[in-house]
Amino acid sequence: MSVLWEARSPHRCLPGPPKRPDPPVSPGIRVGSTLSTTRPRLLLSVTIVTSNQTFTCPALVDSGAEQNLMDEKLAKRLAVSLTPLEPPTPASTLNNQVFAYITHQTAPVRLITSGNHQEQLSFFTFPAPDTPLILGYPWLQRHNPHIDWAGKSIASWSVFCLANCLRSAVPSASTERRPAPPPAPDLSSVPPDYHDLQQVFSKDEALSLPPHRPYDCAIDLLPGASLPSSRLYNLSRPERETMENYIQESLTAGRIRPSSSPVAAGFFFVGKKDGTLRPCIDYRGLNDVTVKNKYPLPLISSIFNSLQGATVFTKLDLRNAYHLVRIREGDEWKTAFNTPLGHFEYLVMPFGLTNAPAVFQALVNDVLRDFLNVFVFVYLDDILIFSKTLEDHRIHVRSVLQRLLENRLYVKAEKCEFHASSISFLGYILAGGQVKTDPVKIKAILEWPVPETRKKLQSFLGFANFYRRFIRNYSQVAAPLTQLTSPKVSFTWSPEAHAAFAKLKRLFTSTPILTHPDSSKQFVVEVDASDAGVGAVLSQRSGPLNKLRPCAFFSRRLTPAERNYDIGDRELLAVKLALEEWRHWLEGTEQPFVIWTDHKNLLYLRTAKRLNPRQARWSLFFARFNFTLSYRPGSRNIKPDALSRLYSPDSEAPPPATILPASCVVGALTWEIEETIRQALPGDPDPGTGPPGRRFVPAAARGAVIHWIHTARFACHPGVSRTARLLSRHFWWKSLLRDVRDYVSACAVCARNKPSTKHPMGQLHPLTTPHRPWSHISLDFVTGLPTSSGKCVILTVVDRFSKAAHFVPLAKLPSAAETAQALVTEVFRLHGIPLDIVSDRGPQFTSQVWRTFCSILGAKVSLSSGFHPQSNGQTERL
Fold first, then answer.
1. Domain at 662-753, CATH class
2. Is the pLDDT of residue 808 over 90?
């Protein structure tokens, strides 16, 4: 036998017929592969664990061996239990020459391969001193590993191994017994009504590899995007130990596997509040090139729409939420990350992927779709179950738990709350018909230090903004702080900002209790507007005394344009904004809701015969609602009035309303135009020869002065004579009349609206219809383009017959001669001389050079009407 092991006959194998799942009972064992010690072999380092000891040795992977072999001496050394074979099985070569007999088979022993691949395996004993273990064809067929022959190692394991061999470690207490079943979950916090569903609370099941579903996390990359890669982060000693434990646990659970992906994300840690470390993967590079999943997350405020009448609540928290979803098959390589231990990739959805929240929300929504907004609200891995009675609640909770179990979604019992009359959910305290702020969140706001930078102030306002629905006049109180978040404003912590910061904290300590809106009851909307903002309160009558109780508060600062509205439009704006904010509650109510306002003129809105354009637009929006307007004096309209008036958004009082603009005041001799003249005088001083009592106008300011007089509201675009007379009352310069004449003749408003005093110009005639291509063309220039290859102007030439066009790039706006040269070179040499050329009245086309050029060619010049480019529409549209 030693000769066989040293010389290695042509093929070595084990018991006779092809591989079977159970230990074979065969007439003989064939030995078949050539295994000379001088030839390359695949040897794996394996560890054998028995009840008494652990032994590490090399194992030969041989596809020619029909069974798995263990050296007889190794079996005796490990004191492995042996089972005699009756009768002994002969071992033979490929030519059926028997050279030994197999007499014993070992009991299953624990075999660990590649550090985390664990299984129970039985061997046939065989004298093999040089190779103590041989993993034959049955082992290869069962595990189907991907072998790196160049590196002489296992590159990756099969799906079977991920689900069975790479799971939690097999207990090593006894190799002759089956692994002990996982411990039963702790159900001390779970009502006895649901103990029969204990598997849904199983931690062991939640750690297993989930199945592939239609909701596997897909990672589609943007076309042409480069693959992200990140550097390896340095880790401290505690971080390295935590990383090693995390990698080993994840490999054992089958959540990750070794990778050879070209993608590499960084691996690092962030500290938790309790001092422990949380592993993080830096997927920012991958997220930047990932096609985004736009599945929406639910609005947290929408939870209040479904809680009408609910008195019993249960909150469920899913265990290992994201790890319950698989990465789409074939996309695992995109999740690869680097660690000092090597390169790994996820098989389950990790935290940090941009599409992870959307994928998980879609999965849970579809699992519980027929329960949503009936007695269930889901936000990612948080599930709220609510019912009106305890009997109904038990049925609802059981239905949800059963549905989760059927879809292999598991619940963390220690974080769940069952059958509560008051419960904390997503930062709110929910009780029978009421909503309150969470004291834990409010404490964080109260302990917030004074922000020292704009970024810290934005963090505070973002956190506080979550509870703005509980705070009256929130936007007005926070206005000094929100002004500091603008990059256009210097960040200076003023006394006003500090007072607003302190007041906001104080208001959070006395937040009111809001009631759940009930669509079967009548709503009351109280609105008010001031110069600074608008405010509104949504209320309903409830309780034994039928008192008005607030459901929500709303406030908003007015924009600069809105502050210019008259008081009636500002009050109407407050109504419009309140209806927009609470449209989902107020639209389609069973009975008309009431709007209380302290502006009596609004009562006539629906009966007014004349509305300004803004009111007319808004009236179309109001028509969607069924409401009545009721007048309430300001002395009784306290709540919305406070919302709109507590803070003025400007540091100084708003200017008084202007009744007559300054441009219409004729008697004043000091106008804004004087400043323009004063600034231009140093460059063109007064010659001192003008009429007394009149101011000299420098050349740089003459156009502005003529424009100011000619377009003034009291003048109303007068003609040349009247404009000159108005100017001559206070100003003078030598070419005043000529400049006025040039300006008025070019005024577009006068040309469009004033009838001509001259003789009729004659009727306009349509352009001649062309009968062949390129006999009639039209021209125009496209200017104002960014420079490209030294060109910034395009000469557009359009054939009026075929609509074909030429686009000639030019370095600048050409003269008439340059235009003629461009046409000859780029158009006429290709299509011939045209009969008619249509253009606008640009200087190139009205010059004598152009007319002479066209006359020589025999082409007719057709100019479009002044200030009417439509007559050259084909070219203008291009």
1. mainly alpha
2. yes
